[in-house]
């Protein structure tokens, strides 16, 4: 089967809710990443055959086809088409899968997979809240679905608590994982490990002073077990807090995926080869546990063992998710989210898939190559798994 290659991978530094990126329109955020990918790949933008943009909150400023609006806000020509997709938190990881499948099928040769989410300007859940507030409809789940699964709603917070309870995880264990995420994120920033992947953004303050946004705002270098332990749990008898859950985040990210023919024709340098693609679905109530069976299937179908994988990115939606994954898959904690994860760096929903892939590609190359695995829990009990080989 023909191969698909990543020739450029870039992301913005994360912005906290109401933080550095609050004045950036999401289409402009995405456009900056598209321009950076073209520049870093060293390719004529006119040869790009599609932009596949992941975004969860496709309402307000992210409505009316955010993918196409990203292209229109960028330096790409009008001839470049785009599509906007939603696979919840795995939206832009699915963008990678669609891009790779297009290239591997021979249908297209140069495709950008990207994602964007401004959680400041388009708050999480806005698409559900607006019609409900206007008295229109009953929300996304009809009574037939609620009756089938015996719930009144589907909640990722409930799913996280269920995982913690099922795996007998203590609050202290979850907080310790969160603290390590901040420590790794701060250490990676201090070493300059993110420098190559981050697209600088100009921020203008109230006095008109310009600065460059190049550091993830969510990292707390001074985080401590005492501070994390002082946070209230989301449920009275629960263990999930704002401290051991992912941070609301603004940001954009993307990777350029090309065929071997495009490598030769345009003189491109591959950063990684896409080795395997998997998506599975399971229980929509606990929902966040699906990366475990998805990873098992990916390893089986790829003919690899977890010992063959040098680094893994398991999205830190909530601390129980990667911790349960480690236990069940038998992974090495020292290979997991080595530069921190969404607990410290932020989780810009639709942008997280290509964000994690960008970090994984660069981390593997700094390590000297090898295989990387990325997986993401997604609303509705879905999970994507992508395996790459750094070149």
TrEMBL record:
Pfam annotation, one family: Thiolase_C
Domain (Thiolase N-terminal) ranges: 5-260
Alphabetically ordered keywords of this record: Acyltransferase, Transferase
InterPro entries cross-referenced by the UniProt entry: Thiolase, Thiolase-like, Thiolase_C, Thiolase_CS, Thiolase_N
Top-rank EC class of the record's enzyme: transferase
Record domain Thiolase C-terminal: where: 268-389
GO molecular function annotations of the record: acetyl-CoA C-acetyltransferase activity
Protein EC: 2.3.1.9
Keyword Transferase attached: yes
Active site: 89, 347, 377
UniProt entry tagged with the keyword S-adenosyl-L-methionine: no
Entry-linked PROSITE patterns: THIOLASE_2
Family: Belongs to the thiolase-like superfamily. Thiolase family.
Protein name, per record: Acetyl-CoA C-acetyltransferase
Organism name: Sphingomonas kaistensis
